[in-house]
Design a protein that fits this description.
Number of helices: 14
Number of domains: 2
CATH topology of the largest domain: Aspartate Aminotransferase, domain 2
CATH class of the largest domain: Alpha Beta
Distance between the termini: 21 Å
Radius of gyration: 21 Å
Strand order of the largest sheet: 2-8-7-6-5-3-4
Strand content: 15-25%
Order of helices and strands: EHHEHEHHEHEHEHHEEHHHEEHEEH
Number of strands: 12
Shape: globular
Oligomer: single chain
CATH architecture of the largest domain: 3-Layer(aba) Sandwich
Bound molecules: pyridoxal-5'-phosphate
Structural class: alpha/beta
Helix content: 40-55%
Largest sheet: 7 strands, mixed
Length: about 350
């Protein structure tokens, strides 16, 4: 019985085609800029996102931090959502390593920040205040039901920020999920922004790596930041080779992950005692009602015994993430297991 792992899209292993490409990658010293495979991946990513240049980094966390270090100086402030990954799940690296302040404003249920909240957060010229430098958005917004931000919304934030002389960064760890869900070219999602990061190692199934994209001069600064963070890798083409295959073969199929997330959510929502949140992409949340005889930990344990990994995230709440390892049969098996565990059979 194979394990159905719904914890995250990071659990995916490289595809056979990726392993093949990795084995045969032409490499060089990337700190010298001499790895042809890394250079090719960076060119591909820049073209794909409609930006001048790109940089291969170890992780999404490093991509966001290197971007913030490139945009901001000591004591500068970044406006970001209170449910954003950068605020919640990156150890406060911007403050710990960059002396950069987060100014958090509430994420709405759809993942957006209200334009009025952003505008109110922008500091003036008063000598008592830090300088606002940047607005950081997240697309898809992981903790807000994996919701995609639309091109029109991102453009409206970029217009507002640029009017005040601020820059805009997008944490696009799952930006291709957003593009596929909205049926739009990924370029349209980042057209007006100054920098964007995206992950190769989540739904795109590469083993390691994220990309930063932006102007040539910005990427030059990010490259310096990456080096001081210890992210200057040498024959990194071995890893970049998988990233190229990820971009070439793994983007369009994300639609299947979204369909399966919908199907799984619909099946769970039909069970008494289960409340399911909205599904926009490959992430959704559900919870067990107070009347349900099992708490979250007991439900998760019972699923694990049936070969399904879905740890509870709160006393009764769960996050589900679909990815290329989850097929239609796995959706059916998960639903059948939930029926069984909840004693509904
Ligand atoms: C996963 C994730 C990151 C960080 O990526 P790592 O590669 O795990 O460091 C950043 N932002 C969002 C929205 C993510 O989901």
């Amino acid at each position: 019985m194979h394990v159905i792992d719904l914890r995250s899209d990071t659990v995916t292993h490289p595809t056979p085609e990726m392993r093949e490409a990795m084995a045969h990658a032409v490499v060089g010293d990337d700190v010298y800029g001499e790895d042809p495979t890394v250079n090719r991946l960076e060119e591909m990513a820049a073209t794909r996102l409609g930006k001048e240049a790109a940089l291969f980094v170890v992780s999404g966390t490093m991509g966001n931090l290197a971007s913030l270090l490139a945009h901001c100086g000591r004591g500068d402030e970044v406006i970001m959502g209170d449910r954003s990954h950068t605020f919640l799940h990156e150890q406060g690296g911007l403050a710990a390593l960059g002396s950069i302040m987060p100014f958090v404003v509430p994420n709405q249920h759809d993942g957006t920040l209200l334009l009025g909240d952003i505008e109110n957060a922008i500091r003036g010229a008063d000598i008592h205040e830090p300088r606002t430098r940047l607005v950081s958005l997240e697309n898809t917004q992981n903790a807000c039901n994996g919701s995609p931000l639309t091109p029109a919304y991102v453009a409206s934030v970029a217009d507002l920020a640029h009017r005040y002389g601020l820059r805009v960064h997008v944490d696009g760890a799952r930006i291709f999920n957003a593009a596929v869900a909205l049926g739009t070219d990924v370029k349209a999602l980042v057209a007006g922004v100054d920098s964007v990061t995206f992950c190769l190692s989540k739904g795109l199934a590469a083993p390691v790596g994220s990309m930063i994209c932006g102007s040539g001069s910005f990427i030059g600064l990010a490259r310096r930041a990456r080096k001081v963070l210890g992210g200057g890798m040498r024959q990194a083409g071995i890893l970049a080779a998988a990233g190229i295959v990820a971009l070439e073969t793994m983007v369009d199929r994300l639609a299947d992950d979204h369909t399966r997330a919908s199907n799984l959510a619909r099946g769970l929502a039909a069970l008494p005692g289960v409340s399911v949140g909205p599904v926009y992409t490959n992430i959704f949340y559900f919870s067990l009602d107070a009347a349900c005889p099992l708490d979250g930990a007991a439900f998760a344990d019972a699923l694990r015994e049936r070969g399904i990994l879905l740890p509870n995230r709160g006393p009764r709440s769960f996050r589900v993430v679909t990815h290329c390892w989850i097929d239609d049969e796995d959706v059916e098996r998960t639903l059948a297991a939930a029926v069984d565990v909840l004693g509904l059979a």
